[in-house]
Design brief:
The structure holds two protein chains of two kinds. By secondary structure, chain A is mainly alpha-helical. Chain A has helices at 2-11, 15-24, 38-57, 67-76, 81-108, 117-139, 144-155, 164-172, 179-211, 241-266, 299-307, 316-330, 332-335, 348-368, 371-379, 385-412, and strands at residues 27-29, 238-240. Chain A has 16 helices and two strands. In chain A, helix 3 (38-57) packs across helix 10 and helix 5 (81-108) crosses helix 10. The longest helix of chain A has 33 residues, at 179-211. Chain B is built from four helices and nine strands. Chain B folds into two domains: 1-38; 44-197, Rieske Iron-sulfur Protein (3-layer Sandwich). Chain B has helices spanning 8-35, 41-45, 79-88, 195-198, and strands spanning 50-53, 62-67, 70-76, 118-122, 133-135, 150-152, 159-161, 181-185, 188-191. A three-stranded antiparallel β-sheet of chain B has the order 1-9-8, with no helix packed on it. Chain B is elongated and about 95 Å long. In chain B, 24% of the residues lie in helices and 20% in strands. Classes of the chains: A mainly alpha, B alpha+beta.
């Protein structure tokens, strides 16, 4: 064994140091809290999606005629097929749960700020690819919601002036979502986008390890005092990833798998939130489901699309608003000019704005998922439900975009009164 | 090499020409991959005109036919329903069908049709392409207390009247499109061919 190691080492002397630099001896701040579980959990889910996905392709049939039945075949006849599919479908939803929490952590503790802008941008690209990946995966079972979801999302491109209608036909390869659409989405879902996703994840981690992790105090441990128990040249307030954070993350993995297993075994559809009821009927191009709503993780963005009415004979404004809501997040490092990273030492205005962002995001999710459409007639009988819902949704859309405008004004004009940031992390010794 | 003087101008010229020729090659090689996503010959052939029998559609009824796998609504409007159209105009976005892309010339009229009672429209919401529901009865509806009959899109709540004209203040920006069609005889229409082309 030692001989084999020497043999490799002689021929690739940089391999072992690289592994140590990025994995075992990656020095991370020692004050990580619960919010720092979600990065490693995202990798866990990614591995789950790849492994279960590979096994699903072994029985899935890529054809508009056979796709729906092949999924039912996996569920009913393939040994353990139901488990593999539910692991994949539950994994998709949990992927977004951990990614949303991971992103919120980054906003809350200012992890997107200098010098980690590149980490944040790569993360946003991962988020975009993940959304495309999830959308195309959702189309593959070719249920009625798959079909109509595909129709609506592809039609978004039709709102682009002049090239729109031709672009829509080009994406679908037909005049409606059809066999050609299903086949190309399959190709993109199982190979093209996963390759891009993996590359981006590697770059995201490489960029992170270049600048080092942020922490709940937003203190720069790399520029603090040097010398810890293991290495005199490394930051005093940092600990090696292994064994400290491998063990910590294992606890997170244990909890996460417990929750995931509960969903997979007892509530795989999660009350219509993870797998929608309308998707248990085959695709039908002449019958629209009564309520078209996207998967829950798209609902906040979808609500923005729905709430912005058309002007000047085009519906493109809602589409711009929807993509703009994601662009705003990507631009955060340049909108937020504040020097202080962590919410712990930031001004009251920032804390309130962050709360508004969370509330507006969740409220838009409720609007997009049709929760408000159900509740408003119950709570306000006799009122005009559509008007009330539009008013609520539009206020929440303004609140969401308002966060980004406020943050820029607040920090650019020096209105923020921050607390003093400590020299070292607050929980040393 | 005896010649030790580097001719930078020549080197730059060679670099640029190599890059340009290589770039043209890459662009040319990409074209087939992009074009492979266009509707195939088979998909286009499936988009041929269809002739449908409308004799069984009673007054007030709607039947959906497939043309290019698009749902085409054929509605036999009653006198009552036609009488409501004029009064709705203030509430509509484009009551006079001014947007010429949404219907052929021969359907640019009050009823947006060749024969007043027969409405032929592509049943896809101009917002994001859902199939609107046919709600023909003239009575208050949860989504509109003043409903005079028409189409209601379940996806994003766009509303159209019984001529497929869109209401103001809904997400959809345009009237429902009228496909090219003509009457072969009193009980048959062909969808996909203009009256002129049919001769």
């Amino acid at each position: 064994m030692a001989n084999l190691f020497d043999w490799v080492n002689e021929r690739a002397p940089n391999l072992a140091p690289t592994f140590r630099k990025h994995m075992t001896e990656y020095y991370a701040p020692k004050n990580f809290n619960l919010w720092y579980y979600f990065g490693s959990l995202a990798i866990l889910v990614l591995v789950n999606q790849i492994v279960t996905g590979i096994f699903l392709t072994m029985n899935y049939k890529t054809s508009a005629l056979e796709a729906f039945n092949s999924v039912e075949y996996i569920m009913r006849d393939v040994e353990w097929g139901w488990l593999i599919r539910y692991m994949h479908s539950t994994g998709a939803s949990l992927f977004f749960v951990v990614v949303f929490l991971h992103m919120f952590r980054g906003i809350m503790y200012g992890s997107f700020k200098r010098p980690r802008e590149l980490v944040w941008i790569l993360g946003m690209l991962i988020f975009l690819v993940l959304m495309a990946e999830a959308f195309m995966g959702y189309v593959l079972p070719w249920g009625n919601m798959s079909f109509w979801g595909a129709k609506v999302i592809i039609s978004l491109f039709g709102t682009i002036p002049y090239i729109g209608p031709g672009l829509v036909e080009w994406i679908m390869g037909d005049f409606l979502p059809a066999d050609a659409t299903l086949n190309r989405f399959f190709a993109l879902h199982v190979i093209a986008l996963p390759l891009v996703l993996l590359l981006l994840v590697v770059l995201h981690l490489a960029a992170l390890h270049e600048v080092g992790s942020n922490n709940p105090d937003g203190v720069d441990v790399k520029h603090g005092p040097k010398g810890n128990r293991w290495d005199a040249s490394k930051p005093l307030d940092a600990i090696p990833f292994h064994p400290y954070y491998t063990v910590k993350d294992l606890v997170g993995v244990g909890f996460f798998l417990l929750i995931a297993a509960f969903i997979i075994f007892f509530a795989p559809t999660f009350g219509g939130w993870f797998l929608e009821h309308d998707n248990f009927t085959p695709a039908n191009n002449l019958v629209t489901p009564t309520h078209i709503k996207p998967s829950w993780y798209f609902t906040p963005f979808y609500a923005i699309l729905r709430m912005i009415p058309s002007f000047f004979g085009t519906a493109i404004w809602g589409v711009i608003g929807m993509f703009g809501s994601i662009l705003m997040l990507a631009l955060l490092p340049w909108l937020d000019r504040g020097e202080v990273r962590s919410v712990r030492f930031r001004g009251m205005g920032y804390r309130i704005a962050l709360a508004v962002l969370v509330i507006s995001f969740l409220s838009l999710g409720a609007v997009g998922a049709g929760v408000t459409a159900e509740l408003i007639p119950e709570w306000f009988p006799g009122a005009d439900a559509t008007t009330l819902e539009n008013a609520f949704g539009r206020i929440m859309t303004l609140a969401y975009f308002g966060f980004f405008i406020f943050i820029w004004v607040y920090t650019h004009f020096g209105l923020e009164k921050t607390k003093p940031v400590p020299e070292r992390v607050t929980m040393h010794d | 090499m005896a010649n030790e003087v580097v001719d930078h101008g020549r080197r730059r010229f060679l670099t640029v020409t190599t890059a340009v020729v290589g770039g043209v090659g890459v662009v040319a090689a990409v074209v087939p991959f992009i074009k492979s996503w266009e509707p195939s010959a088979r998909a286009k052939a499936a988009g041929a005109p269809v002739t449908v029998d409308i004799s069984a559609i009673d007054a007030g009824q709607k039947v959906t036919f497939a043309w290019r796998s698009l749902p085409v609504f054929v509605v036999n409007r009653t006198k009552d329903q036609l009488a409501q159209l004029k009064g709705l105009e203030p509430r509509l976005l484009d009551p006079q069908s001014s947007n010429t892309e949404q219907q052929p010339k021969y359907a640019t009229n009050e009823t947006r049709s060749i024969k007043p009672e027969w409405l032929v429209v592509i049943g896809l919401c101009t917002h994001l392409g859902c199939v609107p529901d046919f709600v023909p009865d003239i009575k208050p509806e949860p989504f509109d207390a003043n409903w005079k009959g028409g189409f209601y899109c379940p996806c994003h709540k766009s509303r159209y009247d019984l001529s497929g004209r869109v209401f103001s203040g809904v997400p959809a920006p345009k009237n429902l499109p009228v496909p090219p069609y003509h009457f072969v005889d009193d009980t048959h229409i062909q969808i996909g061919v203009d009256p002129k082309e049919a001769g």
